[in-house]
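User: For documentation purposes, I need each entry recorded in a consistent format: the amino acid sequence on its own, followed directly by the corresponding structure tokens. There are two entries in this batch. Please keep commentary to a minimum and don't merge the entries.

Assistant: Recorded as requested. Entry 1:
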Amino acid sequence: MTHIMLINPNELIKRAAVELKKGQLVNPPEWSRLVKTGHHKERLPEDNDWWYIRSAAILRSIARLGPVGTEKLRTKYGGKKNRGNKPEHVYKASGSVIRKSLQQLEKSGLIVQTEKGVHKGRVLSPKGVSFLDKIAVSIMKENKKK
């Protein structure tokens, strides 16, 4: 078994985004072409497949961080805003984008909600673990061939 943390995150996220799009496990909402990913951003995402990439990145973050909620992911994907002459200020990412992505991943069966002791949030389901493991194994095989 190949652990997903041993794989280059960029490769894993790109490949997972392709698989999410191909399997139609998540679909971008109509408004996704018109929104920024956070208050700290100046422009819209340039990549047309940004919804799939963000969903794949969220899936990997859930696998890595365990029970995770929307607020923790908003903090993770937030950033600094350039405010001209004024000092930079840290802002969280868009909650709607993350929430809708989590709902779609949950609907596709890749993640489930849990209450683990005092920790409440979403974790990978067995289907989500096998989804990421299959991608990790294929990347590992390709890297061995090179």
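Entry 2:
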Amino acid sequence: MKILNASEARANLFSLVEQVNKDHLPRFITSRQGDAVLLSKSDWESIQETLYLQSIPNLVESIRAAEQADDWVSEDEFLGALNAMED
């Protein structure tokens, strides 16, 4: 974990943006006005997707039930059924 103060972050912003996109490790930026975290856009989107999926009631339980029942379809089967519904 890399911690920088706001002045260091400002002086090295371009380099920090490159680093978080390359190594996917957040950078913690401290200041008297409050702290912040710098991370890549793809990491941010992954976090948001995870939070969204965790907000869906009973999602984990339904996935576990499908796993136990071996009740799965391939992506091609799913997309084919979806396309058939649209026609």
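Summary note for entry 2:
DSSP finds five helices and three strands in the chain.
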